[in-house]
Design goal:
The protein has 298 residues and is α/β, with parallel strands linked by helices. The chain has helices at 2-32, 62-66, 74-79, 155-165, 185-199, 224-233, 247-256, 270-275, 283-291, and strands at residues 127-130, 169-174, 205-208, 240-244, 259-262. The longest helix has 31 residues, at 2-32. Bound molecules: magnesium ion. Magnesium ion binds at residues 131, 133-135, 244-246.
Length: 298
């Protein structure tokens, strides 16, 4: 104890003096070592660091997270999965495929083996011009009595089919009984009104009241009544069809350049039938020649 007390002061003194002796050398070494240049060291720019966005998850593109597209609802942005770098940043820039404005046309139905072969549908006539006596109504010679008017078989159906098809009609009739002094014009008109009561409106009525010796152009087989009816309807006579029961009707149609269909009756001569370009058994059959068969008859 005594030895320690005697020896320690000299040892401590020696270490103290040795430390002071190394001080100048240490100062000289620090002056040669470069101090870190804090002016050139880049300070971390925290303004460029994105704010943590927990909604994008750990793999989200932080640069996009720092500039969120405000056209996207935040709820959608939060629900979006993280995109890869190849994916477009803005869904609005993607091409938009618009829905068709009209439904697509249904596929064409396969032709039924029972259906008739498709062919060119006949073009509709511009108008159908009916003879009156023996065609629309029974022929009562020089009839002036509306009470004697009887509609011919199939006349109503034929007229209705033409109306349904939008084909205009008219009536062209010789009434030579007026010229012969057997009828008055008023009686002719009364019979005509009765015909329309039974068949409905038939369009313009073109009536010739001349006799065979008058030399008029309107009396059939002249073309005058056909031309007048076509003119009243505003169509070309050559686009019309005349339906009658005797040769004079066919000849009048031919003279006007119209198509003729003969519907013979008991008074029709055989040579008139033979000379007719088209013959039908009744009025319905005649209209079918023009419009094609009706729905129920196909
Ligand atoms: Mg007739």
């Amino acid at each position: 104890m005594v030895a320690t007390s005697v020896a320690m002061p000299p040892v401590a003194t020696w270490h103290w003096l040795r430390g002071w002796a190394r001080l100048p050398r240490l100062l000289a070494d620090r002056s040669r070592a470069p101090l870190p240049d804090r002016s050139r060291a880049p300070l971390p720019d925290r303004s460029l660091e994105p704010l943590p966005d927990r909604s994008l998850g750990p793999r989200a593109d932080r640069s996009r997270a720092a500039r969120p597209d405000r056209r996207i609802a935040p709820s959608r942005l939060a629900a979006e999965p993280a995109r890869s770098a190849a994916e477009p940043a803005h869904p609005a820039a993607e091409p938009v495929r618009l829905a068709p404005r009209r439904p697509s046309a249904p596929p064409a139905a396969a032709p039924s083996p029972l259906a008739p072969p498709a062919g060119p549908s006949p073009s509709l006539p511009a108008a159908v011009l009916f003879d009156r006596d023996g065609t629309l109504v029974a022929d009562v010679p020089y009839n002036g009595d509306p009470g004697l008017v009887v509609v011919m078989p199939g006349a109503r159906e034929a007229v209705e089919r033409l109306r349904g098809a939008g084909v205009p009609t008219a009536v062209v009739s010789n009434q030579s009984g007026v010229a012969r002094g057997l009828l008055r014009a008023e009686q002719v008109e009364a019979v005509n009104r009765r015909v329309e009561e039974l068949l409905g409106p038939l369009g313009p009525w073109m009536v010739c009241v001349h006799g065979p010796e008058d030399g008029c152009r309107c009396r059939k087989p002249g073309p005058g009544l056909i031309e007048a009816a076509a003119g009243a309807l505003g169509v070309d006579a050559r686009d019309c069809v005349v339906i009658g029961d005797i040769g004079a009707d066919v000849e009048a149609a031919r003279a006007a350049g119209a198509r003729a269909v003969l519907v013979p009756t008991a008074v029709t001569r055989e040579e008139e039938v033979a000379a007719a370009p088209e013959v039908a058994s009744d009025l319905v059959a005649a209209v079918e020649l023009l419009l094609g068969p009706a729905e129920g008859r196909r």
